[in-house]
C-alpha cells in the first residue's frame, strides 16, 4: 500500500514539471497557420481562436454570425476583415450607446492598446480631440483653440473638448498645448465621395461613428520574436520573448528536479495527511451548542439568527460554482454570483480552507453581521448548515463591483467617478464605520476592495472576517495585528493594541 502511494506521488509530482517543460514546444507545434470565422477572411498571427489560447495576442471568438474580437477586455462585433492585412472593421455597441445618448463619457473613450509593449492599436477614420480641464484658465484655453479655428464642446461638467472636422484622420497634433489638455482620437462615420448628407460639424456627436477599422501593429521586439519562432510576453511590466530552443534544453533539468523533489513531496504529503486526519470531521462540529437554535415558527435551522442554506441549494444557485460567475477572490476565499430559487440575486463566499482558524472567521462574520442593520453595510442572508462540508456565506448581491475596481481596476474611468461622487462614497463609508463603532465593533480591514458600490454608486462596507468586538468599558483590546499591509494603523501594528481609532 505504501509502495503504491509512493509510486503515485512520484508520478503526480513529476507531472507539473513535465507539463511545464513541454508546454511551450507543444503549443508552438499545434498552433494553426490561420483560422476562419463564418463570413470573414482568414485570421493569422497575432490573432488567436478561443480554442488555441497560446497561439497569439488578440483573442477572436468565432460565432455563427461571424465573430467578436477582444480589445482591452471588451468584446466588439467583427463586421469584416481585410484579406492580407491585420486590419479589422468592428462595431462597438458600448460606444454607440454613449454617442446616441450624447454622453460625455463617449468623448473620453479609450481606444488605445492594453499592451503597448506587444502591439499598438490605431483606428480609421478618426478625429483628434483635445480634452481640457475647464476649472482653471478656461478663457485662455478657449482663446488658444479659437486662434487655430477649432470648434468647441463645453457641455460636460469637468472638461471642454476642441476639434477640427477638416483634420479627419490627420495624425499631426497641435504644438504648445495648454498644460490642462490631452489628446484623444475617436472614430468618425465613414463618408463616401458621393455621400449627399452634409454632417453638422458643430455637433461633435453627429460626427462620431461606432463602426470603424482597427489596425493592429506588432511592436518591433515582438515582431522580431515571432519571426524567430518565439512567443511574446509581458512579465513584471517588461517585454519578454520566450525562446523555444532554450526551453527545450531545460526540460531534462526540470525532469531531474521533479524526480528528486518527489521524495520530499511524499514526506510532506504524509505529514499533511496525518494532520488533516485530526480535523477531517465536519468543521461545524467545533460550533458550540449555544451557537445553534431552531426557529419554532417554520422549523428552519438558524445560526446566530442567520438563515441556513443547504450546500446543494447554493451549488445550484451558482451553477456548481461556475468560474465564469466568480465575482472576485482574496486571501480567504472566492465570491460567486448566484440566484436563489425565490429569485433573489446573491453573492456566495466560499472559503478556501476548512481549518479551525477559517471556522472561527466564519463564525465571527456571521455573529457580527446578523446583529447589524445599516444602509451602508452589506446584508448577510445566511450561511451553510452545520452538516455541510463547505464554509459558505450568502450576501446580498451588489452589482457595481468594488471601489478598487472603479479607482484602479477593470472599471476605472475618471468620468464615471467624479470628485463629488467620490466624496459621497467617503462620507457613506464613514457613516458605516461610525455605526460599527457605536455597536462596539472594529472592522480591522477597511480598504477599497472591501467597499462595494451598488447601481447608484452607494457604498456598502463588506468582509467582516477579521472584525473584533470592543466593549465600551475598555480602551483597547490586546491582539496580534491582522489586516492588509499598507492599511494597518502603525500604532496598532507596533503596540498590538486595537482601539476604535485603529
UniProtKB/TrEMBL annotation:
UniProt KW keywords: ATP-binding, Kinase, Membrane, Nucleotide-binding, Serine/threonine-protein kinase, Signal, Transferase, Transmembrane, Transmembrane helix
Transmembrane parts of this sequence: 255-276
Alphabetical list of SUPFAM superfamilies matching this protein: Protein kinase-like (PK-like)
Binding site for ATP: 350
Leader sequence segment: 1-20
Gene3D superfamilies: Phosphorylase Kinase, domain 1, Transferase(Phosphotransferase) domain 1
Limits of the Protein kinase domain: 321-502
Species of the source: Lactuca saligna
PANTHER family, per the entry: LEAF RUST 10 DISEASE-RESISTANCE LOCUS RECEPTOR-LIKE PROTEIN KINASE-LIKE 1.4, PROTEIN KINASE DOMAIN-CONTAINING PROTEIN
Entry-linked InterPro entries: Kinase-like_dom_sf, Prot_kinase_dom, Protein_kinase_ATP_BS, Ser-Thr/Tyr_kinase_cat_dom, Ser/Thr_kinase_AS
Molecular function GO labels: ATP binding; protein kinase activity
Pfam entry (one): PK_Tyr_Ser-Thr
Name used for this protein in its record: Protein kinase domain-containing protein
Amino acid at each position: 500500500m505504501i509502495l503504491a502511494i509512493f509510486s503515485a506521488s512520484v508520478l503526480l509530482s513529476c507531472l507539473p514539471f513535465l507539463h511545464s517543460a513541454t508546454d511551450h514546444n507543444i503549443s508552438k507545434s499545434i498552433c494553426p497557420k490561420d483560422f476562419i470565422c463564418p463570413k470573414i477572411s482568414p485570421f493569422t498571427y497575432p490573432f488567436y481562436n478561443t480554442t488555441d489560447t497560446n497561439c497569439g495576442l488578440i483573442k477572436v471568438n468565432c460565432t455563427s454570425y461571424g465573430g467578436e474580437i477582444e480589445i482591452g477586455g471588451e468584446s466588439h462585433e467583427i463586421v469584416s476583415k481585410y484579406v492580407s492585412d491585420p486590419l479589422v472593421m468592428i462595431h462597438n455597441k458600448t460606444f454607440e450607446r454613449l454617442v446616441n445618448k450624447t454622453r460625455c463619457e463617449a468623448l473620453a473613450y479609450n481606444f488605445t492598446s492594453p499592451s503597448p509593449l506587444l502591439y499598438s492599436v490605431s483606428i480609421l477614420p478618426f478625429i483628434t480631440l483635445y480634452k481640457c480641464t475647464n476649472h482653471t484658465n478656461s478663457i485662455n484655453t478657449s482663446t488658444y483653440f479659437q486662434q487655430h479655428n477649432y470648434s468647441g464642446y463645453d457641455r460636460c461638467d469637468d472638461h471642454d473638448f476642441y476639434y477640427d472636422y477638416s483634420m479627419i484622420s490627420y495624425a499631426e497634433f497641435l504644438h504648445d498645448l495648454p498644460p490642462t489638455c490631452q489628446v484623444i482620437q475617436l472614430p468618425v462615420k465613414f463618408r463616401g465621395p458621393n455621400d449627399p448628407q452634409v454632417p453638422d460639424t458643430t455637433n461633435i456627436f453627429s460626427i462620431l461613428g461606432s463602426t470603424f477599422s482597427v489596425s493592429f501593429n506588432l511592436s518591433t521586439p515582438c515582431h522580431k520574436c515571432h519571426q524567430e519562432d518565439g512567443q511574446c510576453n509581458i512579465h513584471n511590466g517588461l517585454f519578454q520573448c520566450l525562446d523555444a530552443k532554450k526551453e527545450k534544453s531545460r526540460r531534462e533539468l526540470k525532469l531531474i528536479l521533479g524526480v528528486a523533489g518527489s521524495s520530499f513531496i511524499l514526506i510532506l504529503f504524509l505529514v499533511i495527511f496525518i494532520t488533516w486526519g485530526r480535523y477531517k470531521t465536519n468543521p461545524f462540529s467545533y460550533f458550540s451548542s449555544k451557537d445553534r437554535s431552531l426557529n419554532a415558527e417554520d422549523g428552519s435551522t438558524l445560526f446566530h439568527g442567520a438563515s441556513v442554506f443547504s450546500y446543494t441549494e447554493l451549488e445550484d444557485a451558482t451553477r456548481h460554482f461556475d468560474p465564469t460567475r466568480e465575482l472576485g477572490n482574496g486571501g480567504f476565499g472566492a465570491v460567486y454570483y448566484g440566484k436563489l430559487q425565490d429569485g433573489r440575486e446573491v453573492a456566495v463566499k466560499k472559503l478556501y480552507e476548512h481549518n479551525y482558524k477559517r471556522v472561527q472567521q466564519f463564525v465571527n462574520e456571521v455573529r457580527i453581521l446578523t446583529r447589524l442593520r445599516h444602509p451602508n453595510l452589506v446584508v448577510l442572508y445566511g450561511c451553510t448548515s452545520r452538516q455541510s462540508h463547505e464554509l459558505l456565506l450568502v450576501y446580498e448581491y451588489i452589482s457595481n463591483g468594488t471601489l478598487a475596481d472603479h479607482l484602479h481596476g477593470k472599471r476605472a474611468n475618471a468620468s464615471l467617478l467624479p470628485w463629488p461622487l467620490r466624496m459621497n462614497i467617503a462620507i457613506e463609508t464613514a457613516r458605516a464605520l461610525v455605526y460599527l463603532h457605536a455597536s462596539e465593533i472594529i472592522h480591522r480591514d477597511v480598504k477599497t476592495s472591501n467597499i462595494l458600490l451598488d447601481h447608484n454608486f452607494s457604498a456598502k462596507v463588506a468582509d467582516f472576517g477579521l472584525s473584533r468586538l470592543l466593549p465600551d468599558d475598555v480602551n483597547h483590546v490586546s491582539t496580534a495585528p491582522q489586516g492588509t499591509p499598507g492599511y494597518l494603523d502603525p500604532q496598532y501594528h507596533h503596540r498590538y493594541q486595537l482601539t476604535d481609532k485603529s
